[in-house]
Fold this protein.
Amino acid sequence: MLSIFVEASCNRYVRDECRFCHVYPPLKPSLESREDWHMMPDTARLMAEKIRSIAPLKELAKKEINLTGGEASQNPHIVEIYKIFRTLSGNVRLHTNLDINSEKSKRWERLVEITRLRGRIDITLYPTVWESKQKPLLKEIIRLQSGLIVNLIYESLEDLLRQLKILIDFFEDQHPYLMPA
């Protein structure tokens, strides 16, 4: 897999759309202007050309490209960037925290468009926003695509077990025929 950071780090816990960006050291000195916060399509094209010209990267990209970053769906150019990297691989994924306020947000619309283009959306589960934001949108993502990776971040075995229970309960409700009796 080849992971490509398409967004540095945004004020993602405040708004659905990037209005004010921040990056912490050591990245801050290297990102001079706002254009540097989000990958632009021209940069994606340049990266794609470089990946094509370097055999090991080209082979990795053929297997899978993971578009990630602080919150990749906040990059306003992510659909165009997805299309560019799709020319390298039929297996392009976008990772999101799915901490989105509603299905009317531009971030959500971008995710839906990527699934329509045969991209896959993967998420990181965050129990603090599970019920209010992630759960309703994950139901929709499952309707839109056939595969999914869910990352779990935990500090203890207890945290891990709690998150696994959240997922088991969710999938039992969604697809009871998939769960063992």
Notes: The chain is about 40% helix and 15% strand.
